[in-house]
Amino acid sequence: MAKDKSKPIFKYHVRKKIQKALKYILMILLAIFFMFPIVFMIISSIKEDEFQVVTDMSSLRAFIPVGELGLQNYQDVFASLNFAHQFFNSVLIMVLTVLFGLLINSMIAYALARLRFSGKNILLSVVIALIIIPFEAVAVPLLIIVNKLPWFGGATTWLDTYHVQIFPFIADAFSIFLFYQFFVNIPKDLEEAALIDGASLFGIYWKIVVPLSRPIIATVAILQSLNAWNRFMWPLMVTRGEDVRPLTVGIQSFFGQSPRLWGDLMAFASMITIPVLIVFLLFQKWFVQSVASTGIKG
Amino acid sequence: MGIGKDIMVNNKDKGSITTYRRKEAKLAWLFSTPAILLLIFFVIVPFVWAIWLSLTNTRLIPNPNVPTRFIGLENYIRLVSDEVFLKSLFNNFYFVIVVVPLQTAFALGLAMLINQELRGMNIFRTVYFSPVVTSMTVVSIVWTLLYNPGEGLINAFLQAISFGKLGPYDWLTNTKLVFPAIMMMSIWQGVGFQMVIFLAGLQEIPASLYEAAEVDGANGWQKFVNITIPQLRNTLVFVMISTTILAFRLFDQVKVMTNGGPSNASMTTMLYAIETGWGRLRIGYASAITVVFFVIVLLISIAQRFLTREKGVQRNG
Are A147 and B274 in contact (CB < 8 Å)? Predict the structure, then answer.
């Protein structure tokens, strides 16, 4: 009897173990699938022989640091492509877009969620309706607008400037909606207590609502930073010179030159990607949460 | 909705209520104005103007020989017989038909895989998600090298697993292969995003449903079909619709990798609009393409509202 009973249990355990091992094998294969281009990019970037980058591709050598290794490609990108300046451009545009965006989008969302004023419901419906207009639908007419737009100091066009890459992306209907959803759910007690204590309406926003809203601020900041860092179409349209050009347009323009220097290109690509990957690894929980929150979309 | 109402009513001081209300409304408009102005100027005005521009022959730099004028529906009439435009529209639909089901199924599979309690799951989740944070411009350049015709890594891999029977292929220069190659890369880059959305959806399904099904002796497939899929209905609709909209916005990959070629085999609606408006300065015609593009996006969004409304819960709809 005891024997009969132990046999199926033993079998069950073995089957579970095999199942588990198979799952891990599958997950490791998938990990290889998702990682191989990134590993390939980084390994190729430290191979100094441009020709070797291409010839190594027909074998696993593509993923192994062999041959002449060094940071020559990185030096080339810094020296001949003005990488540092383009990196500065990308960071500046991203930081300003996100900071102004957080302030302005959270303010209107706060008004819509917590304050009473006439016209509120219409305003809310308009903002929600605007979510479905993708930027691509306004890019062409916006180009003709910014082409002939004045700026301080007598400039008559916005082309080839930083502000043309920042202003169109500050107010964002979807960010407003994310803030709105969060603010609506904050309990009123705290604000009422502050009101009794004599806090001003602005004081309530700044000292109570903003500190409580760290999760949603992080969410919007991450989504907007990623969008800004990776933005390509609009900067391509509005920057003709190298002065204000961000990294995405910079690498595309370098990619368009012949002959293609693959080692340098991979170094350039790595330097665009690695900072983001590091930030992602540090704050991955937040990244995943921000993306998950885009699913709850109205 | 508003705060302070109860307190003020308790004061029984009508004057103070009106002052308070007025202050509240003033602050509300003060808070809203910057965003309203920016949205009007950078979204609403260009959006409405696109419709007007599409009825003219406006150029970015006016041609002195051809004065800008109202030409009615001429741009739209020309679009109907513009082979490049039709090809680009066809490509967008082709992308939707192939990528939306594949990517959705793949993302759901990944989400179910990493939703299990196994050691090291966090690492796998991070790895699967990392292409999402990689810029599409960079991805396109790296994959162009991977797709290299002779000795590219993908050709080498295919030859290795097929013992030399498959390939080598000219991925990006063959009119039949170029678009599938771009689709494959787009799935690689984007699937992690949907995976995370599905994961959030999966975690909201009450465990009691699965437990009850197990008591009734349901197997894994039955649980998937009868619990997972119906519970994820709205998430599924959301993911499929948003992937469809992204497919119509397709631009970065094709611009960097092929610029629409060879012979327009990878042309997309958005690339054609930008090439026409920005490249060839024909703003009027490009605006007409933009308007068609928006109408398609609008119809898809309406379909989403329609599909998610039926179920009482409005989570994703």
Answer: no
